[in-house]
Amino acid sequence: MTGQITIQSNARTITGRASKQLRKQGIVPAVIYGHGFKPVSVQVDGKEFQKVYAEAGETTIVYVSLDDQSYPTIIHDVARDASSDNILHVDFYKVRLDEKINAKIPVEIVGIAPAVKNFGGIMLKNINEIEVEGFPQDLPHKFTVDVSKLEQIGEQFFVKDLAISEKLKLKAEPSDIIIMIQAPISEEKLKESLETAAPASADEVEVIKKEKATEEGEVGEAPATEPAGPPAGGKEPKKDK
Q1: Is residue 236 within 8 Å of residue 221, measured between CB atoms?
Q2: What pLDDT, on the 0 to 100 scale, is given for residue 39?
Q3: What is the pTM of this model?
Q4: Pair 44, 7: CB distance under 8 Å
């Protein structure tokens, strides 16, 4: 990833259920909002956004052009249709380049662990993202974990083993385990453990895919979780859809 990432937007006057017509034309409804910034309803080209999102993710600054202005933002939320996975709405959180924010950086695994290849070990990934604090322009797109150095059963890769810029403050515990290599287990033992394991309650089940509102209505009135973009302790205005 090189250079500044930008996306062109246009002012949006269509809101609510009428936004369905925009999506049929390949246009994605969006909003630019932020602390101390009046929300602005915009729309972006769907194909262009897909390219930008693939490159920037939700941690890299995207400059949203609107008329003669260019706003530094972080893609805070992408609402998708639960059945088709089509993009319904996008939130661009306007950031200040002189103000630090908290962000959760995704962890990507690369390489092949010799302990898995040579000894049949089972690689367990315990952490999918690492929270850090820093200026928006210093946030990495992702953290990469090279598991090719994990040669023996029982070896682990900790948060402290990550190559993290001095410009960032780590919010996770350095001793937290990201990757561990577990000894192989026989099919019989695996079956036995599954049979004796107590069934999980509804509260213990992790919901992997977040379901959004259907395409019939506008989405994203307010973030459902703590946003990655806003500064710690910052207060967000209500977004105008």
Answers
A1: no
A2: 94
A3: 0.69
A4: yes
Q: What is the pLDDT of residue 124?
A: 94
Residues of the chain with pLDDT under 50: 1, 202, 204-229, 231-235, 237-238
Q: 191 in helix, strand or coil?
A: helix
Question: Residue 148 and residue 207: Cα distance in Å, rounded?
Answer: 31
Query: How does DSSP classify residue 237?
Result: P
Contact call for residues 42 and 30 (beta carbons, < 8 A): yes
The full set of domains in the chain, from first to last, is 5-95 (2.40.240.10), 102-190 (2.170.120.20)
Residue 151 C-beta-side C-alpha neighbours within 13 Å: 1
- Return left, alpha or beta for 220; rule: phi > 0 is left, psi -120 to 50 is alpha, else beta: left
Which structure tokens are listed for 204?
């213990």
Which residues, at least 6 apart from 160, have a Cβ–Cβ distance to it below 8 Å? 174, 175
pLDDT score at 46: 95
* Buried b or exposed e, range 3-18, using 16+ CB within 10 angstroms: eeeebebeebeeeeee
